[in-house]
Write a structure and sequence with these properties.
Blueprint lengths: L1 H14 L5 H44 L7 H15 L6 E11 L4 E11 L29 E11 L10 E9 L18 E4 L30
Helix pairs in contact: 2-3
Keywords: Membrane, Transmembrane, Transmembrane helix
Organism: Sagittula marina
Protein name: Pilus assembly protein
Length: 229
């Protein structure tokens, strides 16, 4: 008896489509707004990560195409390009560029030169050093003797627009590119003093770009990138 009564009541309740739109809106609207905000935050995080990585590729490809070397002013403008492409501010964005060279005799990579730009490099060295390259072992490809690579790293402090349980974090990107038109890419020096820099004192490091670059030239005893000294 009681069972049939409950079934009838539940059946009528399920078939009843009457309601109050204002009451339903009060219940559903907050959930819809939260879902919209969560979707936007997740989209923005993935979008900004993608934009940073693409900007990293642009800078690495740009440096790899140089035949006359780069200067501090060049790196300053590359950093300005990074902040423009990512639509970020220099206070929350950092960039570190470096050219590294492989020595088959020593079976290791060494830093030819490295430059850093930005203000938020928390816990990151101002410029890449030979000691830092130890942790890059599984991120660098097999290489020939005296082969150089352009390394580009970027960092951006990202904060969500809404609090949905995802806290602020740092977007990091990394890429390496082989020089395209010259075997080596020299650095002209701190002509403007724009940021931190370092260079290796390794005797195996060649300073010429292989084409008798006037900034460095093919000094005696220095490799020119083609396996000749």
């Amino acid at each position: 008896m009681l069972t049939s009564f409950l079934k009838r009541r539940l059946g009528r309740f399920a078939a009843n489509d009457r309601g109050y739109i204002s009451t339903e809106a009060v219940i559903v609207l907050p959930v819809m707004l939260w879902l919209f905000g969560a979707g936007w935050v997740y989209f923005d995080a993935f979008h900004q990560q993608s934009v940073n990585q693409k900007a990293n590729y642009v800078i690495g490809d740009m440096i790899s195409r140089e035949t006359d070397g780069v200067s501090s002013t060049y790196i300053d403008n590359a950093f300005n390009l990074l902040t423009t492409l990512t639509k970020s501010d220099s206070a929350i964005t950092d960039m570190r560029t470096a050219v590294v060279e492989y020595s088959s005799r020593r079976d290791r990579w060494s830093v030819v030169w490295s430059e850093q730009r930005g203000d938020a490099m928390s816990g990151v060295a101002s410029a890449l050093t030979d000691a830092d390259l130890v942790s890059f072992g599984d991120r660098l490809p097999p290489a020939m003797d005296n082969q150089q690579l352009v390394l580009v790293e970027t960092w951006e402090d990202w904060e969500p627009a809404f609090d949905i349980g995802i806290g602020a974090f740092q977007i990091r990107t990394y890429s390496f590119t082989a020089p395209r038109y010259a075997p080596q890419i020299p650095f002209a020096g701190n002509d403007t003093g724009g940021g931190g820099s370092s260079s290796s004192d390794d005797d195996d490091t060649g300073n010429g770009n292989g084409w008798g670059n006037p900034w460095y030239g093919n000094w005696p005893g220095r490799g020119n990138g083609w396996g000749r000294s």
